[in-house]
Amino acid sequence: xxxxxRGTTHGTAPTPLSVLDxxxxxxxxxxxxxLRTSVxxxxxxxxxxFHRYWVAEHHSMPGxxxxxxxxxxxxxxxxxxxxxxxSGGVMLPNHAPLxxxxxxxxxxxxxxxxxxxxxxxxxxxxxxxxxxxxxTNTLNEGADDFPQQLAELIRFLDDDFPDGHPYRxxxxxxxxxxxxxxxxxxxxxxxxxxxxxxxxxSARLAGTLGLPFAFAHHFSAQNTVPALxxxxxxxxxxxxxxxxxxxxxxSALATDDEKEARRQVRAAALNMVRLRTGRPGLVPTPExxxxxxxxxxxxxxxDSWNANVVHGTPDEVRTxxxxxxxxxxxxxxxxxxxxxxxxxxxxxxxxxxxxYGLPTAA
Length: 362
Known about the structure:
41% of the residues lie in helices and 13% in strands.
């Protein structure tokens, strides 16, 4: 399974490059347009040698249309042929493990050998929405509950509950059980499980289990190096990996001129200000952000947030990504380019690919 995890470096990039897509919806646009941009972006980045394309589960956020990763991934699988597709991630506590195993078994059947199953411990939303998703007011995200859910999910994926277990006769289909039926043929692939995190909990668990790890540097930069160190120190070789493999998500936006990059990231930062203050909405336009009267506290947040966004001209972004790779030693950089307009996002990935001399589209 190691070959399905480790990426290939192209051009002069310091490490494999991948994509994290939040399927953002800008003001004046629709979710339909956002999803069409995702298809265009998946095709573009596949043609330019990006290794994988992940979408993230979010809920009750008007500006993020990725509430159903499995549905979006099925759509993207129909429009691509090579790039790996996955969740960055599915929030495991929001779902029954059997349901996730069935969904990603179905995706694997649709796109054999191209599916990643990234799992998160957070709800991907606020507490009230999480309660609505789970049909309970008790939100269990502690150290005991998540590992148990993870173990159950992996058992369903591998169809190997031990004799005497209450789920021994329950099977995730599509899945390995089909190979044991008369005339059945075993699929050579099973979606590799990744753990995602923004703190040390999942880093340690991923290391202990010998699983690949993805860290959310794009919104938890201060914890990146400590979490990666903890992952590497905790790592135990497994049937999945013989050595640690860590991806970090990084917010990066390249434009043809530096001023435009500053305008775009300021609009994205305004979107985060509204989200963090309980006013989630559509991604504002740069013009709206320029006219917005930021309070001193909001401006402080914007400055802090944008300090963690690699943005500017293609050369500036390349330098910023190179420096980040040197500081973290990440095995792969997963880039998320957030902007109001889909064409700006598409152009950003194209410029980054050009800056690193990635393969050109056929």
